[in-house]
Design a protein that fits this description.
Number of domains: 2
CATH superfamily of the largest domain: Dihydrodipicolinate Reductase, domain 2
Radius of gyration: 20 Å
Number of helices: 14
Strand content: 25-35%
């Protein structure tokens, strides 16, 4: 296996450090628009693993599908791992298809609001552009594995596991994510600094969140419908000391993936944003700073959202000033295999102290990065295999969960948990 990873931001940097401990691949090319960022990641890996020669850096414009395809052919990549933000999904996706490589991403192609009823009906859904090319991927005999980060990704694996081994009937698959993370400045004061791309946070949190219900499946939108941002707040009690966090509906890929492969009555995604983040997002929207279309500023065209993202700290740099844990998980309700009512939370917790100590990566990006590396290893071993455009739910969950949790060096030493409530 020869991997071309496009993106050397926080997640890409962490993924390379995780992959360096594994033996399943022959080469790992780190590509970025800024060659210096790719060089930095490769240098970091080699400093941690003297003599490591499987990693090298390259430059690519991820917005140019032809440039992506040319680089895939140049480095003879068998698998393209998309580690940039979702603006660049389609050029990388099309470039991989054109060059004959398999493809993995952690976020799907962007949505577009319904032009008339954005808070009731779906428009272009997350991933629609990718699924529209499914027949071409199948005809080419290649695999596009969508949404294999942590969310989406691990929660989708949990959904398949719950359906296969825990439940005879699922009422709701409810992704519930929360954290007790704090970022401090040099004086120890708590400051605002998002744990991952602010561009992506704005995109998914201010878009109309999507819900899926089986009882609506025969309607024109196939069971998917939208709500206003930050709808239906609920307090969810997260494990391992995180505690109760208020969660709200957010647009996310799991709701678009799970109903395609897992039988349930309802699928939702709620995230513990917190009052501060919600207030900031509302203000950005009110001021028009969430816009992506360029506006003229003193003779220069700039995207307001790009400016917001640029003035905030790079998520890759905030790890030393971060404290706490983040939890990603799936709340499943319904009927157990024994015929009795069941309510189960399947989850994975990442502690910043651990990820900084072991990988020099903050916990949010590390928790996202570990899952595509696990998936690549399963594809390399043949335990996961497929053609066409598939989500994590389309694959057997046990190999993934066992490899993630097994002690090193056999596994990744990152156990997941399960609570019946």
């Amino acid at each position: 296996m020869r991997v071309l990873m496009i993106g050397a931001g926080g997640v890409g940097d962490a993924a390379a450090k995780i992959a360096a401990e594994r033996t399943f691949f022959d080469e790992w090319v780190v590509a970025d628009y800024e060659l210096a960022r790719a060089d930095r990641t490769v240098a970091s890996v080699q400093a941690r693993h003297p003599g490591e020669r499987r990693f090298r850096a390259a430059q690519v414009d991820a917005s140019d599908e032809h440039a992506v395809a040319d680089l895939i052919r140049l480095v003879d990549a068998t698998h393209v791992f998309n580690a940039v933000d979702p603006r660049f999904v389609m050029p990388i996706y099309r470039g991989a298809l054109a060059a004959g490589a398999d493809y993995l991403d952690m976020a799907m192609s962007l949505s577009q609001r319904h032009p008339d009823e954005p808070y009731a009906k779906v428009g272009v859904k997350l991933g629609d552009e990718q699924f529209a090319l499914a027949a071409q991927w199948e005809a080419a005999g290649r695999l596009a594995l969508l949404g294999i980060g942590v969310e989406p990704g691990l929660a989708d694996v949990f959904a398949r596991y719950a359906a296969d081994e825990l439940f005879s009937h699922i009422e709701e698959l409810g992704v519930r994510d929360g954290a007790n993370l704090v970022i401090r400045d040099e004086q120890g004061r708590e400051v605002f600094a998002p744990g991952f791309s602010m561009w992506t946070i704005i995109e998914e949190c201010l878009n109309p969140p999507v819900v899926w219900e089986r009882q609506r499946a025969q309607e024109a939108d196939g069971g998917w419908f939208t709500l206003p941002p930050f709808s239906e707040p609920e307090v969810f009690d997260f494990p391992e000391g995180i505690g109760p966090v208020e969660c709200v509906h957010v647009e996310h890929e799991e709701v678009l993936l799970m109903p395609r492969w897992v039988t349930a009555d309802k699928v939702t995604f709620k995230y513990g944003l917190g009052e501060q983040m919600i207030g900031i997002l509302r203000t950005l929207h009110t001021l028009g700073l969430d816009r992506t279309d360029p506006v003229p500023v003193k003779g220069v065209s700039v995207s307001p959202r790009d400016v917001v993202a640029a003035v905030l700290p790079d998520p890759v740099t905030i790890g030393p000033r971060m404290e706490g844990k983040t939890c990603a998980g799936l709340w499943v309700t319904g009927t157990g295999k024994d015929g009795a009512p069941r309510r189960t939370y399947l989850y994975h917790v990442s502690d910043n102290a651990d990820t900084m100590r072991d990988y020099d990566a903050q916990c949010v990006v590390w928790q996202t990065a570990v899952n595509p590396v696990v998936a690549l290893e399963l594809l390399a071993s043949g335990q996961w295999a497929g053609q066409g455009v598939l989500g994590p739910e389309a694959f057997p969950p046990r190999p993934f969960l066992d490899l993630l949790a097994a002690d090193k060096p056999q596994g990744y030493g990152s156990p997941w948990g399960m609570e019946d409530r």
